[in-house]
Amino acid sequence: MTNPAAAEPITHRRVLRIALPIMLANMTVPLLGAVDTGVVGQIPDAAPIAAVGVGAVVLSAIYWIFGFLRMGTAGLTAQAAGAGQSGEVAALLMRSLLIGFTGGLVLMLLQVPIYSAAFAVSPASEEVEGLARGYMQIRIWSAPAAIAIYGINGWLIAQERTRAVLLLQLWMNGLNVVLDLWFVLGLGLGVEGVALATFLAEWSGLAFGLWLCRAAFRQSAWRDWPRVFDRIRLKRMAVVNSDILIRSLLLQAIFVSFLLLGGRFGDVTLAANQVLLQFVHITGYALDGFAFAAEALVGQAFGAGAVARLRRSALLTTIWGGVVALVMMAGFWWLGPWIIDLMAKDTAVQETARLYLPWMVAMPLLLLGLVMFDGIFIGATRSADMRNMMAVSTAIYFIAVWLLMDPLGNHGLWLALGIANVARGVTLGMRYPALERAAQKEATAQREAAARLA
Q1: What is d(CA 273, CA 412) in angstroms, rounded to the nearest whole number?
Q2: What is the domain count for the chain?
Q3: What predicted TM-score, i.e. pTM, was given to this entire model?
């Protein structure tokens, strides 16, 4: 069975068609956090604001661990689509949903020790802890939906259906905002109202996501249980997902250590670093659109064994990622001071953040290689390379911190982070020829299989 997308040319328009909806969808993520904070901030007490912040951070960090489900599902589904295996595409959706539901159920069962561990690591006042626990005890019951949506997003992205991802994000976040306003300002439910709004938005998001995937449920493959639970396919999915999980945990170790090490320079510098990290996150959100396009196009080309299409997909998505990176560099140079003043009102924090703003101007260029190669390697499911090069880059980061922090202070810390970002891009780039060789091997295997059938 052939895949219609395999015959469609890899063009600039096609890349933009995939990437732009993702960029728009990503813009809604920080907006929701701002609304949550703003709505509960109308309560004349600091404790509710702190409680929502603590509860959201804890749950987001836990859910983030399952981010491998989106990436792994995207790569495997894109390859199945590229090979014209529609039955496997449907089965992959069901596998990702089952993993999401299982992960969510485990979190619900472990919620008490999770809360205890969270407050042991980050103690809060009795009032804030009580409110935060109440917030998390409501939100945790939508964990299966929240995690399963990772898989749905990856499945849709793999088939270039990024407009559907945008619609899903707009629906969830839009409903969340409306319910926030109603429950907190209208009904006076406070912190519990914010949690209930997110709970309902995530379950409704899952229902809408399943509707967007309805084509998969029109064929029997999604409930072909021998295929869904095929040991070889499950093992491959487990290997890919575990590699990506290790890579993500190492990445988290870099950012957590960055924040903790910044605390050695005082509260003002720590706060300034936190403000400036938002520039890093904004850059990541912007470049993600083209990284996701690479996941879909490279994955389809890899599954079809089309090396030339793979190379062109990697090239065009990276070109557009570079264009966005240059635009962001100019924007940070021009608007950076204003953005800093918007995020921080303390004069000392503003002045300190401006001192390190040049690192933010350079950051889009420093991030370009790693973000784009991440998308390329996810599409080709070269997860072992991602894991191994992340381990190398993490080691380089800690060595750079050890060498640079004492003589250069906080500038040395930012330089170490920049070196780690470049190292990730360079090391993955060194593995790219092996990726093309694997695609060529896939093409040879497909030709041999076709010859045997003939």
Answers
A1: 13
A2: 2
A3: 0.88
